[in-house]
Amino acid sequence: MSSPLSHNVGEGAGGEGHPRHPNHLSATTRVNVLSALKPASGRGGKASQAFAFLLPTGLLSLALVTSHFVLLSGLLVGVGLLRSTRQQLGPLVVSLSAASGLILLGLQSGTWDYAAPLAGAGLNSLSFGLLLLALLLANGGVALVRGHPPQSDALFSLACCYLLLRLYSLGPWNLGWLLASLLLGAAVALAAAWQGAGAPSSATGAWQTAYLNGFILTGAGLGSEAGIVLAGYGLLLLPVVRLGFSAAPTPHWRYWLLCAALPLSAPFIMAWLAVAAALAGGLTLLAVSLWAAALLAALPVARLAHGQHQGQAQDEDSAAGRSAGQPHRGLHHYNILTGVGLSLATPFMLPGLLTPLAAQLQGGLTPFGSLELWPWAGLIAFNAARQPVATLPSIALIALMLILAALCWLGLRLRDRT
Predict the structure, then answer these.
(1) Which of 7, 27, 186, 238 is the 20 to 30 Å CA partner of 281?
(2) Is 117 within the bounds of a domain?
(3) Domain shared by 200 and 258, yes or no
(4) Are residues 241 and 381 in the same domain?
């Protein structure tokens, strides 16, 4: 007695009563048999993928709420082991670097708790350098140096940025640490924006993420209230940008919401915060560099919004490869609404969320730059002498950003003609 499946296979392969070896089955029959097994394996695969994501996320969340150096280090290394494979050891290297910095901090201070009065005594250049190295590696720094699209680890990038910013609660950074963070952050932002301007459209999301990570590190290196606000806003914007460039294909005009050349979009406000924070700190050259990075980063996004694509073959391959793993279209709509809300709610988010964050780290911050909410001017940035250096909106800054948008449009027109 034969089963229906074996009967159908025998007929499809060589006729009734003449079953063939599986290797001799027709292509159509093989596909039908495999497709019958696919739903069961798909459900198991989705469950394992969800578990592989939720377990490291839960462990990292537990790590970030603890203040004990040993427990925090152990959880970081555990998550690194979970997310690493023989071919991909990056998460493990990141976790070991961050854990080494924390353990060294505890050994030098003689205490193992962030809240201990003498915890800041163990902060030295080596422990700071290890935490900074962990952040750069988590953000895909090795690939960026090689000129490849940096694939940053979202979980470890957030965790390492938190660890670096929390060092301000132990005391002020010395000038060498501030300078290193500023230079590296600006270099990452400029390099990512420059390479992303001419990269294939399929890599735009990776370059935009690296560009934002550079702005976040620059904000941390400013060591001021305005810098912490910049870093905090960047951390809120990162998930919107990640999902916006990895979601299912959408009408091209929606990419304008992710473009720094569109006035009052979330990336536009991010660029304004970066320029204003640099001006408030008296770093004019840094402000010009960050404005140039924002212009370069706006070009590839504007091309996508304009319906232009570089590396069309690569885009098609990327779309085919991502089709099975893309988020639901409804989730993409929520992401768009989140981006719009993030930009419109900035004046209310500043006193309610970002300024309290800076207040928690006030013991280690410098007075060189602050951001405040004024009813008639929106956001206004002050320097150390309490002199206003930038407002949102203001005539000068609007003119500067309109120049950015005009240059972006001019670049698109020149590309059309060539």
Answers:
(1) 238
(2) yes
(3) yes
(4) yes
